[in-house]
Amino acid sequence: MGLDRIAARRLAALCALGAGLGGFSPDAGAGIDLMPHRAIYDMELGDAQDGSGVSGVSGRMVYEFTGGACEGYSVSFRFVTKLANSDGAIRLTDLQTSSFEEPSSQGYQFYTKTFIDRELAEQTKGRAEHVDGRVAISLQKPSEKKVELEHSALFPTEHLKSLLAAAERGERVLVADVFDGSETGEKVYFTSSIIGEQREGPGKLSQDKEEAVLKLGKVPHWPVTISYFEEEATAANGEETPVYQLGFLLYKNGVSRRLMLDYGDFKIRGRLVKFEPLETVDCPAGN
Q: In which element (H, E) is residue 137 found?
């Protein structure tokens, strides 16, 4: 499974990005303004326990978020990493993905290619939409097929807006099912988000670049931790165990920084090194 198969997609969904299972609602996150932007993050090993098998991680994530509420949101994303194991072997992974979330999150188009050691290892392409309280998926790759999920789920930007709306209401927990086209384009992840107290301004630099952080301006933000679960990932004692956790600072305009991906026995840190606001797309007059 590893970083190249799942975690990178979660990072893409995150950066795009009351209790109860999340379902489709045209009004989810209404009034939330997301900032089109381009951000670059340097990825590195944050911590590794003995026996993790991971001795080093280095890489870069380039992320671009464009569009608006009336025309939909597009994400272009590339994540290249080198992962070294305890035997000294190195694997180069190059994840490239593009997606478009239609207005009101009615539909979601996605296309992902994964290269391992410069060889194409996986492709996923398709479109999902909310239909009668469920998610209907039309896949083109890895094979042509139609799939209907048993229940609804939030698409990435829809989830992000719901998370921001919950934070602004002062809620501390958001539980939601999320679909972002991961793996073969048929999988839903169950998520539980813990939202901290609101903080003002850009916040402490940590290891992020000062120039990039200052461009965020005086925007309120929240520390957030999202736990990702698979339906079958249940410990022997019957308690659900997350596949991993993703921590970050989430700004009111949808931008994220100070990423930390926690697998339990090792962690990967993402440092914001460049940030560029892009042109905002306003809704036409009268909409």
A: strand 134-141
SS3 label, residue 196: coil
Cis link prior to 26 (omega < 30° from 0)? Answer: no
Whose CA is closest to 259, among 244, 274, 249?
249
Q: How far is CA 118 from CA 43, 71, 81, 97, in A?
A: 19, 35, 12, 16
DSSP, collapsed to helix, strand or coil, labels residue 105 as helix
Task: Report the predicted TM-score, pTM, of the whole model to 2 decimal places.
Answer: 0.84
| Structure tokens belonging to residue 214 | 């200052």
Least confident stretch, 6-15, 66-75, 165-174, 212-221: 6-15
Angle of helix 8-15 versus helix 156-168 axis, rounded to 10 = 60
- Domain residue spans in the chain? 2-277
Angle, alpha carbons 273-276-281 (nearest 5°): 150
68-87: average pLDDT: 89
pLDDT category of residue 221 using cuts at 50, 70 and 90: very high
Q: What are phi and psi of 280, to 5 degrees?
A: -80, 135
Query: Per DSSP, what are the bridge partners of residue 79?
Result: 61, 95
